[in-house]
Amino acid sequence: MNTKTNILKGIAAAPGIAIAEAFLYKKEKEEISSDVISDVDDALVNLDNALAQSKKELRKIFSLAVDKLGEKRAAIFEAQIMILDDPVLISSIKDRISSEKRLPEYIVEDEISKYTSIMSLSHEVYMKERSHDIEDIKNRIIKNLKKKKWTSKISDDVIVVTSNISPSDTVLFSRVNVKGYVTDFGGLTSHAAIVARSLNIPAVVGLHDATNKINERDKIIIDGFHGLVIINPDNEQLQEYHERIKRLSKYDEELYKIRELPALTTDGKEIEMLANLDVSDEMSFIIHNCAKGIGLVRTEQLFEEYEEFPDEERQYEVYSKIAEQVYPGIVTIRAFDIGGDKVLPVDLHEPNPMLGWRGIRLLLDNPHLFKTQIRAVLRASTHKNVKFMLPMIASLNEVQDSKKLIDECKKELHQENKRYDKNISLGIMIEVPSAALMIKEFSEEIDFLSIGTNDLIQYMLAVDRGNDIVSKQYQEFHPSVVRTIQYIISEGKKYNTNVSMCGEMAADPFAVPLLLGLGLETLSVSASAIPSLKKIIRSLNYADLIKLAEDCLKLKTEYEINKSIHEFFNNKIQDQIKNLY
Ligand code: PEP
Ligand code: MG
Q1: Residue 146: its pLDDT value, please?
Q2: Pocket-forming residues, ligand 1, beta carbon under 6 Å
Q3: Of all protein residues, whose CA lies closest to atom 1 belonging to ligand 1?
Q4: H or E, element range at 76
Q5: Which residue among 66, 81, 285, 489 sits deepest, i.e. has the most Cβ atoms within 10 Å of its Cβ?
Q6: Of 191, 409, 478, 552, which is the active-site residue?
Q7: What is the fold, at CATH topology level, of the domain defined by 7-25+152-251?
Q8: What is the pLDDT at residue 150?
Q9: pLDDT at residue 272 in the model
């Protein structure tokens, strides 16, 4: 079947099968139409809204930038805000909309481009740079003008085909019952892929030229298990996939039956299955799939859901609602991991954001923002089922500085007569290689560790997790990765610190036997992955897993480890499960 020419091969980013019409979402460089409009008032309201939204976004950037980057660099954003307030520019745009009766995006593009083209011709570097800033603001306004249109245009039950997709797009699309995602760019652990998995929507990413090969309204099949996209399938292909969908739903029924049973190996080793929470829509999945608790709440998602940095009250409401819903289960709330690939609607123009101002670095540089979150988490901890976790920890002093802020918040709350759990557990993500080598020292400071393989692999192997061009080099079974995971787990045991894993590797059915064999006892994965992993674990023998891990630790290449793991999967896993992968 794979020899047919209507099949594209990409990266299997979220499992599942979907058959539907394609919706081509062109985000970058949208064509600006000069269409005549009939309702000038409506266009002017649209423009005002887009300007207000752009201003809001820029204020958010400015408040972040001013603390860290100083007045000089932050001034760029302030200047952009000033442009949005420039009465001459705004009134000439408005006048032209009224007199020419053309779409606001066309007029905005035309008016602002007049400035940028003159400036970009300048020989002065300063002027050239300013022209980029103005280009930026133009795109921001146009994006905000377009967004409004786009949400009403997309129809239900389509497969979105696009060059690249941001986590916020994924969330937005999910509201109109999108059946699947196909993208030209992106890797397995890009945030869009993670969100697609959380929402249980099949996705194939990194296809390079899907947007050229697929036309609007083409019928397509996405096979999110094997990373295949079939364009205008023939009858044979359709029949095969309809049958697979039937098998899949039968399998789902079986999974439903075991959902309340423990993740117990055939020889009695129980594994704790927790859920990752990315978007609040997922809570029903988590409860439905009987997770024992939540091993990771990606709180940065709140920025996608709310317009501004949510204040303490808003955060308190969100966290305490989650804590109540999973009670008596535990919820692990991670401090905002902003930056890297999880950029807000902000662009700080960092040359290398993955190695830049991200996670704990940004939080410690913005103590006000950080303390607002700490206070909200502490206040949500009154039922003693909340843990707090720090992202992107590389050095001990980052933990010590965070603890000082936590202590300050505790004191403040005490003085204000506000209740909180005095013994709230504090943990860190192990996702930077430097931290992986210092488990002993970290264990003296904190209560638990959670391995973030998405970043750990990226930083160990120097491979951008979201870049499909190097996705071949992103090897979770690289011997150094496997040995580092083993080291973290055994050091954690030695120093009595709980170790879990919340990176995507924990949800990979091929990786799970090895991870358990390495001694991992807690997995935190997308809620939708829990039932099938439970089914796999319930068919495994723990003694076999220990042997598998011992063998893999001796191997020298990712190729050998991969082979050994696949052989294990073929020999030890039941046919019914195997056939799905
Ligand atoms: C990780 O890095 O593995 C992780 C769980 O965090 P995130 O994917 O949010 O960076
Ligand atoms: Mg991470």
Answers
A1: 80
A2: 296, 298, 337, 431, 452-455, 502-503
A3: 452
A4: helix 40-85
A5: 489
A6: 191
A7: Glucose Oxidase; domain 1 (3.50.30)
A8: 47
A9: 96
Beta bridge partners of 160: 23, 181
Pocket test for ligand 1, best of 429, 430, 456, 526 (most atoms within 8 A of CB): 429
In angstroms, the CA 367 to CA 122 distance is 41
Distance from Cα 452 to the centre of ligand 1, integer Å = 5
Annotated catalytic residue 349? no
Name the superfamily (CATH) of residues 264-578: Phosphoenolpyruvate-binding domains (3.20.20.60)
pLDDT at 262: 94
Give the β-pairing of 448-451 and 425-430: parallel
Query: Which pLDDT score, from 0 to 100, does residue 342 have?
Result: 65
pLDDT tens digit string along 311-345? Answer: 999 999 999 999 999 999 999 999 999 887 665 54
Which are the contacts of 18, defined by CB distance < 8 A and separation ≥ 6?
Answer: 159, 179, 180, 201, 202, 221, 222, 224
Q: For the sheet containing 11-14, what is the strand order?
A: 7-9, 228-231, 219-223, 17-25, 158-162, 180-183, 203-205, 11-14
pLDDT at 163: 86
Q: What is the pLDDT of residue 133?
A: 67
| Ligand 2 geometric centre to CA of 272 (Å) | 21
The residue ranges of every structural domain in the chain are: 7-25+152-251, 40-145, 264-578
Does 478 qualify as catalytic in the annotation?
A: no
Residues 290, 409, 502, 552: which is the catalytic one? 502
Burial environment of residue 123 by CB neighbours within 10 A (0 to 12, 13 to 18, 19 or more): exposed
Residue of 298, 360, 392 to test ligand 1 pocket, by largest number of atoms within 8 Å of CB: 298
What pLDDT is attached to residue 286? Answer: 77
Give 269 Cα–ligand 1 centroid separation in angstroms: 27
Q: What is the pLDDT of residue 151?
A: 47
Cα–Cα distance, 50 to 135 (Å, whole number)? 16
- Tokens representing 564 are 């050994």
What pLDDT is stored for residue 78 in this prediction? 76
Residues of the chain with pLDDT under 50: 1, 149-152, 345
Q: Domain 40-145 carries which CATH code? A: 1.10.274.10
pTM reported for the whole predicted model: 0.77
